[in-house]
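G., the chain you wanted modeled:
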Amino acid sequence: MSEFKDYFSTQSRAYSRFRPQYPEDLYEYLSGLCEDHDLAWDCATGTGQAARGLSGYFDNVVATDASAAQIANAEGPGNVVFRRGLAEKTGLAAQSVDIITVAQALHWFDLNGFYKEVRRVLKPNAVLAVWTYNLLEVGEDDIDQIIKKFDEDIIGAYWPDERQLVRDNYAAMAFPFNETDVTIPEFNMTMLWSLDELMGYLATWSSVVAYKAARGEDPLKEVFSDLCAVWGAANDRKNIKGPLSFKIGRI
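Predicted structure as tokens:
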């Protein structure tokens, strides 16, 4: 298999446990954009968050990821097939796919190669939907400011360059498809998390892994003490929101 930028294999089990789930009404909305519902391809599936959501609306889902560790930790119902594979080489039949989804991953891709494969496998007038999210929001200024400082000042230098596309909510992302002229509804991930669960999520960031590798220490120790000071009781759970940003188009 060709080389790819693998930032997540080392924490694939944590990724499966702590990465937030996308809202159910998102999949209902995406399904409504499709003329047929035979086959969905979830590209860069990770451990299968979006693939599981699609499974209730499409007869078959093929979920691919370049990371063997991610696929090994992926789970889904019987109509989801998990495969290791690059975004630009799926092995899917030409004009066989009703929708392609890419959740929080397009910024890592060889876009030219992926978009070529998109045009090959999508049915005429079928859908490509990609989305991203930036920092999660607790809605309490003291907590959100600590997370922002951690992101920008403590581990900021350890983010790959592609992270800037996420910070810009994909506004600058090349997307050479016929984007839908219908206003996309607002979709948010919503979680009720303890501080331990929030810390588990932060530990999945590629920049945290890079920081540990470069400096031999865990940057989360510093942010944990700061968050403990403002979180409240140890068992308090906070309502956390993650706004999603989209690009949706057809060939």
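Confidence is low (pLDDT under 50) at residues 1-10.

Shout if anything looks off.
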